[in-house]
Amino acid sequence: MNVAILGVGLIGGSIGLAARARAGAQVSGYDTSAEVLAAALERGAIDEASSDVASAVRSAEAVFVATPVGALASSARAALENAGPSCVVSDVGSTKRVLADLAGDERFVGGHPMAGAEGAGVGQAREDMFDGATWYLTPASGTSGVLYERLHRLLVSLGAQPAAVDAEAHDRVMACVSHLPHVLANALVREAESMVDDDEDVRAVFAAGASGPSFRDATRVAGANSAIWTDIYMANRAALIARIDAIAARLADARELLAAGEPGALRDWNERARAEKDQLRAAEGAAEPTRELRVVVPNRPGVIAEIALALGRAGVNIADLALSPSDDNRQGVVALWVRGEAQLARAQELITALDFPVVRA
Amino acid sequence: MNVAILGVGLIGGSIGLAARARAGAQVSGYDTSAEVLAAALERGAIDEASSDVASAVRSAEAVFVATPVGALASSARAALENAGPSCVVSDVGSTKRVLADLAGDERFVGGHPMAGAEGAGVGQAREDMFDGATWYLTPASGTSGVLYERLHRLLVSLGAQPAAVDAEAHDRVMACVSHLPHVLANALVREAESMVDDDEDVRAVFAAGASGPSFRDATRVAGANSAIWTDIYMANRAALIARIDAIAARLADARELLAAGEPGALRDWNERARAEKDQLRAAEGAAEPTRELRVVVPNRPGVIAEIALALGRAGVNIADLALSPSDDNRQGVVALWVRGEAQLARAQELITALDFPVVRA
Hints:
Chain A is α/β, with parallel strands linked by helices. The first copy, chain A, has 13 helices and twelve strands.
């Protein structure tokens, strides 16, 4: 398979390394920095350095746009303009709504791998970067089933676990689990530092080594890479503002409990947090053996996206899928693999409700 | 030395193990639970199990009150009532103002070791629990210098680094670096769990494994041990409420920046958080070789506390100290060890300003 990568840094470079080593892909790369591009070639992350987007994507069957978040939309647009009619184009940005207007192109599928590293740049790229990592995909109603399948299978071969989700829900969740913790960490270091600045007695407590593990954990991501994070904050502003408002209301609740000074109520509040933490951890689910089912579908755009989203919404994750068009090309069979008996039964129920015939393998 | 420990759980048990092994102490223990007391004896954390506070502290030269925070004040009072006139009494509670009314007794010095473990109970106790750990002490103006010195030296022999700080500043800092992060973690899991409850698209994103390292770090302490934390929240309510108000104001600032949508301002805000994080880390200082100085002091209560606090306030940490009374018992010499030339010079300056003669060793 011919794969093109636009932006060959940490994530783009890792895609290249994995695609070459694990999917036997021929990888062409493009980067606005000639130096970065040369480093990627040297590192073996790409087979070929292209001098522009058009030549990078010309013969590609899959394109990954891995530029900074702020440049994603324009890079993805350039990729779609220059790629062929049967090339799937995806990206790796941590917010998905910014690319919503590309959803009209049946070749585009938004993506977001939950992987990364402390460092940056192709020097830190690793072939095993995506092993076992969730890779969110946000297919739209017009997404081509054939192209979605190709992308899905390619990601599985890179070691990732693709999961189809709604783009807007994705961004709201990221605002809560990633962007808000960064804002809280920033606010917390500023608060601590201003206390130190204001009072010599406080400074003495800090100088002796006040910060235990809870402060270190809570501030680890404070002041994270400003180039990356300014883009992310800008891209997901609305969802993040909503989350800040929500957490402010929850802090106000906690303040009220403290002011009331009822030990029983504080204990209940803390116990509930413990229960909710356990529920969240459990919601992330354990891996069970994969089970297969086959679905007969009409061969039209959107079918795969429709199934993937229906299952994703119900918490059924597609571990792998394969699409086989019939000879007359009017219908096809989708083979799906999900984890465990319960998910298998649920998947069968959901797909039947969409009026597609299902058989268990 | 005879040491008594009231409450022989994780911290009390670790003090016992370290005091026996490293200070050659004879340790008597008391606990409201006969079972815990037997386990402490079995574990070798105490030499002798006492049936009540009075017999535990009767011949003690140092008493550690290591009961839960909610029971600290009454246990410390019982210890002072039953201990002899030349016995130092300290505690290990994570808030210090609750014991402020004990400061009138020259035998009492509040304490707070920055150590702990995931588990609880004497079964998790370790002799090396305090190795290199900051151990805050909050001497008051009436604290006996001789007794403060005894406690300080005992803590050093346990492996800890004692640091004299102001009790009120201690509690304010703990509200910021420990108690507030717990409140934020609780608020964050509740927010995430309520998002999951409210929306099936959001649930799908979580089910696929949304939470990356920043969410795990930010929620690690959510719902921490309710028995311990209800006491801590109650004990430090006022300082914690002030910190919640302060962080709410900082979140409002961040919200305003996001709403304005100026990338440059967001970048500056993030960069400043990075700089402040670096400053905080630097404020915790690296260890330099110890240097000694000697101070001639009148032999009256409060002198050691006065020096220790003056140095602590200026960020000069006393690594070790020794007090030698003169023959006529009217004055004495305090030997102090601090880290590095700069701290030595600063210590000399500060103590001279207190009108005590200083000689460098």
